[in-house]
Design goal:
9 helices, Aspartate Aminotransferase, domain 1, alpha/beta, 410 residues, three-stranded antiparallel sheet, Aspartate Aminotransferase, domain 2, binds 4'-deoxy-4'-aminopyridoxal-5'-phosphate
């Protein structure tokens, strides 16, 4: 008697099947029809989502090819024990590649956690604040959220500077920051995903007369440019913009900051516990680490004008952002309000001067395969997120569409 495909109910009257068929390691042909898993990056739309965001087609393609059977193991990565040799090899390669790509010095630990950027807003003060004073520089929604959350855990979440009066269109100059004496750390968000404001250089706290470690939320521009680790105590970010899928949170922390968690800190979120257990105190986000690992290998393969890796991506990101801002700045139809010295290379909020055309603009964009351009609800207008996975051709296609829309509607 022929067997129904696995997962389908048996034909009426058929005897239940047991035995060898359940021991098959390879999917039977019925389960894996001859389907073309090739992802043709040329045919994919351009996805401008702020996150979860576009992932390089090559990464998706490789993950698809390895979905049922990773490297002959007979298992999908999602089915592997995090303590087995297969997954440990994935984890170790990912960590080593990231350390190389971001030039993370040996005295920093790389932690792969869960919870996302918002959980870090609590986890960082639980680990680093010693319940004392913490300084915040407010440059947009995300740093505002960080300060608000920290108030639950610290004696004083002090606002050292804020760009709120200017509606977060400019960064408060570091020389103007009112830093507290004896603060446990200073928190910044180095790229504000909603307001499109980016630090082009990390502040040098020592030069500002401050000994506190700098904590950086680099969620939305990690791996888009090099990091000056000499200025950083801890950096954290969700993976879902530049590194892979949602569910993985990256923390890179200087060793001397470990071991000072408040008693109320959950063990699974105590950085020292996580570091001592190579991110495996509890089950880490294995799928996220795997896709991030594939993304790190993709980054390593990138070249641009003699540069490789993150440096190549940075050059490409500068070219992409320049192309977009130059077009918007010469247009009287569109506007970007962020000060030139802190415009984000990753997230570009822009507005049609005549906002009554917003819906038509978005509908026309979708028709062209230019997806997810609607601005964040708190800011309105449009937002183009052009992370590492966005090729220059995607920004060219967007600018081309904007030019045509302007000509038709001006
Ligand atoms: N920080 C920044 C800069 C972000 O862009 C985001 C998410 N867009 C977060 C924090 C929050 O991340 P999550 O949703 O993963 O908690």
């Amino acid at each position: 008697m022929t067997q129904p495909p696995l997962g389908l109910p048996p034909a009426p009257g058929a005897q239940p099947q047991r035995g060898p068929r359940f021991l098959q390691l390879q999917a039977p042909p019925e389960l894996a029809p001859a389907r073309d898993l090739t992802v043709n990056s040329m045919n994919r739309p351009y996805n401008f989502s702020a996150g979860p965001a576009a992932i390089p087609a090559e990464v998706l393609q490789q993950a698809a090819a390895e979905m049922l059977d990773w490297h002959g193991s007979g298992m999908s990565v999602m089915e592997m024990s995090h303590r087995g040799k297969e997954f440990i090899s994935i984890y170790e390669q990912a960590e080593a590649d990231l350390r190389e790509l971001l030039a993370v010095p040996p005295e920093f630990k790389i932690l792969f956690m869960q919870g996302g950027g918002l959980a870090e807003n609590a986890i960082v003060p639980l680990n680093l604040s010693r319940a004392g004073t913490v300084d915040f520089v407010l440059s947009g929604s995300w740093s505002q959220k960080s300060a608000k959350e920290a108030r639950k855990y610290v004696a004083d979440a002090h606002i050292a500077a804020s760009g709120e009066d200017g509606k977060f269109t400019a960064l408060p100059a570091p020389e103007s920051w009112q830093l507290s004496r004896g603060a446990s750390y200073v928190h910044i968000c180095s790229n504000e995903t909603i307001h499109g404001v980016e630090f082009q250089e990390l502040p040098d706290l020592k030069a500002l007369g401050c000994d506190a470690p700098l904590v950086v939320d680099f969620s939305s521009h990690v791996a888009s440019r090099p990091v000056d680790w000499s200025r950083v105590g801890l950096a954290f970010g969700g993976a879902q913009k530049n590194l892979g899928p949602a569910g993985l949170t990256l923390v890179i922390v200087r060793e001397d900051l470990l071991g000072h968690a408040l008693p109320a800190c959950p063990s699974a979120f105590d950085y020292k516990t996580v570091a001592d257990n190579q991110s495996m105190y509890n089950t880490p986000p294995t799928w996220g680490i795997y896709i991030a690992g594939l993304t790190f290998q993709w980054i390593k393969r990138q070249t641009e004008g003699g540069l490789t890796g993150v440096a190549a991506l940075e050059a490409r990101n500068i070219a992409k952002a320049d192309l977009f801002y130059q077009y918007v700045d010469q247009s009287s139809f569109y506007v970007n309000k962020v000060a030139a010295n802190c415009r984000s290379r990753m997230n570009i909020p822009f507005f049609l001067r005549d906002e009554s055309r917003n819906d038509a603009f978005l509908a026309g964009a979708r028709e062209r395969g230019l997806l997810q351009l609607k601005g964040h609800k708190s800011v309105g207008g449009m937002r183009a997120s052009i992370y590492n996975a966005m090729p220059i051709a995607g920004v060219q296609a967007l600018v081309e569409y904007m030019r045509e829309f302007e000509q038709r509607n001006a």
